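R.M. (postdoc): so does anyone remember the format we settled on? I'll just put the structure tokens first.
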């Protein structure tokens, strides 16, 4: 089992969600997050004053899949959909999962996904 976390631009939320639905990925958790990467934010002029914006709003998708094949398919769809070719497109993190437990039924492993 794999857990995929993808941090993407907020304006790509609908496109990524729809792309994941189109390949029948289920069980998606989405959060609004803030952070900075190599770009370290930016400076904007607000009412005549330069303001340093170091934390950029992003969207985080969290997805658990049962196999390596599903992980690769999911990663490919996110990467192709979220890419604009500019700094700040985001990152995809992939983790191995030891176990998953469905709280309601106590099912474990792949059955709990």
């Amino acid at each position: 089992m794999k857990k995929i976390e993808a941090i993407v631009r907020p304006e790509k939320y609908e496109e990524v969600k729809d792309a994941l639905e189109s390949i029948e990925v289920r069980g998606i958790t989405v959060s609004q997050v803030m952070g900075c990467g190599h770009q370290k934010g930016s400076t904007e002029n607000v009412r005549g004053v330069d303001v340093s914006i170091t934390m950029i709003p992003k969207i985080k998708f969290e997805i658990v899949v049962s196999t390596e094949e599903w992980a690769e398919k999911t990663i490919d769809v996110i990467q192709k959909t979220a890419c604009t070719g500019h700094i700040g497109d985001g990152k995809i993190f992939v983790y191995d999962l030891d176990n998953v437990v469905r709280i309601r039924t106590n099912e474990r492993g792949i059955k709990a996904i």
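R.M.: ...and that's the designed sequence above, right after the tokens. Also worth knowing: The chain has a mean pLDDT of 92. Residues 2-112 form a domain with the Alpha-Beta Plaits fold (CATH 3.30.70.120).
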